[in-house]
Amino acid sequence: MERLWAPWRESYITKLDEKKKSCVFCSILAARKDKQHLIFIRKPHAYAVLNLYPYSNGHCLILPNRHIADISKLSQVEYVGLMELLRETKDLLQEVFKPHGFNVGMNLGRIAGAGIPGHVHIHIVPRWKGDHNFMPVTAGTKVISQSLSVIYKKLSDAYTKRYRGTRK
Predict the structure, then answer these.
(1) Residue 1 belongs to a domain
(2) Sheet hosting strand 60-64, strand order edge to edge
(3) Where in the sequence numbering do the catalytic residues fall?
(4) What is the pTM of this model?
């Protein structure tokens, strides 16, 4: 097995635990500046937002409105609201971008890869045949073909159209 020694990462890992106590997900939800923060759907118990560091076009996060770190602690209503929003977001992404498939997943806890482990969130990543070619392998780079503002506008417009101009 190959090893990459990266002692310079120790300060990054240590700082993650020392960061200010406010949650970025709670902050953007409370700010009510949805366009600025790329929140394109708000529901009573959950919201959908574009990922600022996408793996692919249309990479979204589905989050409960309540700050909670463990899915087992969600109420039944919150859990159902989260899953319904996941389904609704998937359908919206399908309609707007017509991907060939999706990756859907959660990283529960920092050790599992959660960048923000204190607030549960579900990733939904649209996928297309050949969407990740040689670039990640040879250049360590992923190509995202649309800006977040263009993706936000497309999803927001489609959501508004779906509900005839009224946000649900």
Answers:
(1) no
(2) 39-42, 46-50, 60-64, 122-127, 101-105
(3) 121
(4) 0.78
